[in-house]
Amino acid sequence: MVKRIVTMIIGAMAAMTVGAQTMKVLDFRLLENDLTANIQGTAKTDMNGETAALIKIQTPERGFSFDGGMQGIVASEQHAGELWLYVPRRAQKLIIQHPDYGVLRDYYYPIPIQGGKTYEMLIDIGTGRYATITTGVAKATVIIDGDDCGVSPVRKYLNYGRHTIRAVKDRFEGETTATITVNSQPSDITPQPSAVSPQPSALSLQPSSLLFHVDMQDMSHLYGDVRVTVDNRADIFLNGQLMGTGEWTAQLREGNYTVETRKADSDPMMTSFTVKARQMNEVRANAPIQHTGWLHVYTRPRNVRIAPIDVSETQTLPVGSYQLEFSRKGYVTQNIEYTVRRNETTLDTVTLQRVTYVKPLAFYFGGGYTLRSLSGVTAMVGAVYQRHDLQASYTFGLSESDVMYWNGDMTTGTKYKMQSVGVKYGYQFPLMRQLAITPQVGWQYNFLTADAAQAGYTTLGDKASSQALTVGAKIVLVPIQHLYVFVAPEYMVALTKDNYMTAIDNAGIVGNNGFAVHAGLLVNF
Q1: CB-CB contact of 236 with 230 (8 Å)
Q2: Cβ(400)–Cβ(391) below 8 Å
C-alpha cells in the first residue's frame, strides 16, 4: 500500500514537471531593418527559385527539428545564440519538435510570411523566462551566474530560480539578484538615463520579456597599478589570455591574481601575487624553465679551438640550433651546425684536415726575374689540375747585348734586348707540406728588339727570332697559404733561327742555347 502511494506521488510530480515544461512561442514579429534574408551570402531560394523568408529563432536549447508541412523547409543553420530557419514565402504553419521538451503542433504564423524578409521567433521551453538585462554603463559586459553573456543590453533565457547578474566595464561595476518564478510578470519600467549611460537601452523589449537593470558604480578606489616583468621576453598570460611579452602594465582591482609565463621549448611557470589598491604593485614573474639537452664534440687533433661555446667537454644547453667554429693553426677551419634536443645528448667527432699548402688544384699568377744571357723580368700565369701544371710566360728584356757590328770598319752597330714567350707543361711532386718540385718541358719563342739610339747605330736585326725547347724544373716553397716562392732553372736548346738571329748568335752577341733561371713570387687560389 505504501509503495503504491509513493508511486502515485512520483507520477504526479512527473506530470507536474512535464506540464511546467510545456513548449510555446512567446513572440513572433517582422524585423523591419534586418536584411539578412535578402543579401548575397545569407539569402536562399526555395525549389521554385524564389527568395525564401528567414526566421531567426531564439531558444535556450539546441536539438530542435522543424516541419513546414506541405510547403516544407528550405534550410536551417545553427548560429551563436539562435537558429536560422528558411521557409518559403506564404508559409502558413510550423511544427516544432524537441526530444526533451515535446512537440508544438500546428503553430500558425500570426502575420503573413513574405519572401526576402527576416522574422524573429522566441520559443519558451517551459523551464524559465526570457529576461532583458540593461546596465548603468552602456555596453558593459554582463555576467550571469559566472557566465559571460556579452555586452548590454542582453536578452537571455533564465531558468526558474535565483540568478546573480553582474556588469563590468572599465572600473565600473554593479551586481543584482534576479529571482525567476512562474508568476514573474514582465516589467513595465523603461531604463532611465544616467550620468554614465545617457541613453536608454536600444534593445526592443518583448511584452513577455522580464526586465532587469544593473546599477553600476565607479570602483576606481579599489584599483592599483600593476607592472609584471619576466626574463627572456617570455609571454605573460592572465586567465589564459596573452597580456604582453617580457613586460605587462595594467590596472587591476585589489585581490589575488596568478599569471602564467610561457615560451617555446620551455616549461610554463605560475606566479601568484596580491594587488593593493591605490599603489604601484611591482611583480617579478617566474621565467619559464627552458628545456635543455647536452652537446659534446670530440676533435681530431686535440686542442682545437671551438667557438663560441667550448663543447670539448659535455655542456648543458637550452634546446635549439648552435653554429660552432672549429679551428687550429695549420688546419682547415670548419663550421658545423648542431641541434640540441630536449633531454638528449648529441655526440659528434670532428676531424680537421691539414692545410694544403701545395695544392693539386690551383690557379696562379705572378712574376719574377729571369737570369740568362740577356736577362729580364717574367710574368707568369698557369693552372694545376690533379697535379698537371700548364704554364704560360712572357719575359720583358731588360739587359742589352754587346754591340753587333754589321760592317768591317766597326762604325755601324746595334744593341739588342731579348723578349720571350713561353709555354711549359709539368707534373707536380710534393716533397713536404710546404715544398714541391715540378719537372717541366716547354717551347719558347725568342725575338730581339734593336736599339739604335746611339749615333751611327742601325736597327738591322730588329725582330730577329728563334724557337727553342726548354727543359727544367720549378721548385716552389709555400711559406703561407696562397703564396709561392719559386725558383725555376732550365736549359734552352734552339730549334730554329732566322738568318739575322743566326748571324747574331754566331757573333756571340746573343745565346740561344744555355741555362736560365727564373725566380719570383706566385699567388695561387
Answers
A1: yes
A2: no
Q: With residue 445 as reference, give the H or E element that holds it.
A: strand 435-451
Type and span of the H or E element at 439: strand 435-451
| Burial (CB count <10 Å: 0-12, 13-18, 19+), residue 209 | buried
DSSP notation for 98-137: ETTTEEEEEEE-SS---TT-EEEEEEE-SSEEEEEEEESS
Phi, psi (deg, nearest 5) at residue 74:
-75, -50
C-alpha span between 242 and 456 (Å, rounded): 102
**Strand ranges in 39-116 using DSSP code E only, listed in sequence order:** 53-58, 65-67, 75-79, 82-87, 93-98, 102-108
Rounded Cα distance between 91 and 73, Å, is: 9
The dihedral of CA 247, 250, 254, 258: what is its sign? negative
Alpha-carbon 84 to chain mean position = 42
Q: Which of 344, 329, 352, 353 is nearest to 296 (CA)?
A: 344
CA distances from 424 to 21, 246, 255, 384, 391 (A): 110, 70, 92, 12, 5
Distance (Å, whole) CA 252 – CA 60: 34
C-alpha 497/C-alpha 446 separation (Å) is 9
Per-residue pLDDT of the chain (525 residues; tens, 9 = 90+): 443 343 334 333 433 443 444 788 988 999 999 999 999 999 999 999 999 999 999 888 888 999 998 889 999 999 887 899 999 999 999 999 999 888 998 899 999 999 999 999 999 888 888 899 999 999 999 999 999 989 999 988 899 999 999 999 988 999 999 999 888 776 543 443 433 443 333 344 444 578 999 999 999 999 999 999 999 999 999 999 999 999 999 999 999 999 999 999 999 999 999 999 999 999 999 999 999 999 999 999 999 999 999 999 999 999 999 999 999 988 999 999 999 999 999 999 999 998 888 889 999 999 999 999 899 999 999 999 999 999 999 999 999 988 888 776 666 778 899 999 999 999 999 999 899 999 999 999 999 998 765 655 678 889 999 999 999 999 999 998 899 999 999 999 999 999 989 988 888 888 888 999 999 999 998
Cα radius of gyration (the chain): 51
- 3-state DSSP assignment of residue 47: coil
SS3 content of the chain, % helix, strand, coil (to 5): 5, 55, 35
Pairing outcome for strands 280-284 and 223-229: parallel
In angstroms, rounded to a whole number, what is the distance separating the alpha carbons of residues 293 and 315?
Answer: 8
- CA-based diameter of the chain, in Å? 170
In three-state form (DSSP H/G/I as H, E/B as E, the rest C), the secondary structure along 448-499 is EEEECCCCCCCCCCCCCEEEEEEEEEEEEEEEECCEEEEEEEEEEEEEEECH
Name the grid cell of 330: 695549420
Q: Are 149 and 156 in contact (CB under 8 A)?
A: yes
